[in-house]
TrEMBL record:
The keyword rRNA processing does not apply. This is RNA polymerase sigma-70 factor, ECF subfamily. It comes from Algoriphagus zhangzhouensis. Belongs to the sigma-70 factor family. ECF subfamily. InterPro entries: RNA_pol_sigma-70-like, RNA_pol_sigma-70_dom, RNA_pol_sigma70_r2, RNA_pol_sigma70_r4_t2, RNA_pol_sigma_r2, RNA_pol_sigma_r3/r4-like, Tscrpt_reg_LuxR_C, WH-like_DNA-bd_sf. Pfam families: Sigma70_r2 (PF04542), Sigma70_r4_2 (PF08281).
Amino acid sequence: MKISGKDIQYDSKAFNELFEWLFPSMCMLASRILKDESKGKDIAQEAFVKLWEKDQKEFADENALKAYLYVLVKNACISHIRSEKKIQKTSLEEGESVEDDGYLEAVLREETYVLLHEAIKKLSPQAEQVVLLALKGMKNQEIAGELNITLNSVKTVKKRAYKAMRESLGGQFVMILLTDFIHFF
């Protein structure tokens, strides 16, 4: 496989890094479409096997690879749903809007989830804990009790963490705020 003209061997460190970066996203997408985490992991693994089988495939960049894998996962999910229900066509293929079936929404949510978690990982350990607890819906007082710190510390840490995340994410921060991402946690 080639990405941006660079040869990537399937037994290489570069492929392993791509797998570790993309596999969780593919699992989550498939799990959301199928509403089953175990089947979602199987579908994501199958997508990487199909990618491996087409070792002459070329991609303009990593985003093109990601888009290709999203399509593989979506198609595998359609096939799985079709085989489980023993139907000939799914609503996606019968001309209904993809948005109606939640596929694009699932992709957007997954991309948002990845961006948000990358920004959270860059925070200090305490800030990461505060933000994750806040995203789970906990109030400042509850977070203070959970982490055994003062209420003012929670407010200060949260304010600094959100500022750092805004700087880290740039314009994408607004997109994340507009997306209902709390359900990811």
